[in-house]
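User: Here's a structure from my thesis project, written as structure tokens. My advisor, Dr. K., wants to see whether a designed sequence matches the one we expressed. Can you design one independently, without my sequence as a hint?
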């Protein structure tokens, strides 16, 4: 019986909540967990690298990826398009690795449709004031863009009940620890344990043999 099976882990949250940093930390600290690469039409930020953070493409190349079925999901987010590269997800799962998808609420819904065993995690900011402060200090948005992201956050919060787990990113280390615990717990979920019936049957057979073949249908040990 194997309990260390692979599955997608979707981490979604409003902009400024810190989901990408949390996702990266989970990958860095947890064996057997890899990052699922996305393509985007957004220009790279100064700290981002091609092939590590995103695959940066123009509109024509993104159209080609979508038309050829190479995107597991894609959506418009804040004037740009983002899409999860299907091959990377498939390769990771085939290799026995859990794959973290840092995507938006729209993408999370699509992944749940295509991959029902995906684990959906929604990251919340500790407060609305802290969310606005984080957006103000990111240094990448003008006031108009910040307001757009706050409106989007308000809309995305309405989807929180569609997710399996909620993580409040107040204390970063504590939030990463919660994510790590979620991965470990999901790896041991009964429905993910392969050959469970065979393993239980084997144990029952050995117990019967040790008891001299006796059967006991009227009581169960607690």
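Assistant: Designed independently from the structure alone:
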């Amino acid at each position: 019986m194997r309990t260390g099976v692979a599955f997608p882990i979707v981490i979604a949250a409003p902009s400024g909540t810190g989901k990408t940093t949390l996702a990266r930390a989970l990958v860095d600290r947890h064996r057997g967990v890899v990052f699922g690469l996305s393509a985007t039409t957004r220009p790279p930020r100064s700290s981002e690298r091609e092939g590590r953070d995103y695959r940066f493409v123009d509109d024509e190349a993104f159209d080609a990826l979508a038309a050829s079925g190479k995107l597991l999901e894609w959506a418009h987010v804040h004037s740009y398009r983002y899409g999860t590269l299907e091959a990377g997800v498939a390769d990771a799962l085939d290799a026995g690795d859990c794959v973290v998808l840092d995507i938006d609420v729209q993408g999370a819904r699509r992944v749940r449709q295509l991959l029902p065993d995906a684990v959906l995690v929604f990251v919340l900011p500790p407060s609305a004031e802290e969310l606005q402060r984080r957006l103000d200090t990111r240094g990448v948005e003008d006031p108009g863009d910040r307001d757009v992201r706050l409106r989007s956050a308000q809309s995305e919060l309405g989807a929180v009940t569609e997710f399996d787990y909620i993580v409040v990113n107040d204390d970063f280390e504590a939030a990463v620890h919660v994510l790590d615990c979620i991965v470990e717990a999901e790896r041991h979920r009964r429905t993910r344990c392969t050959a469970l019936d065979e393993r239980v049957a084997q144990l029952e057979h050995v117990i019967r043999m040790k008891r001299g073949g006796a059967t006991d249908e009227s009581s169960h040990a607690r």
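When you compare it with your expressed construct, this may help: DSSP finds eight helices and nine strands in the chain.
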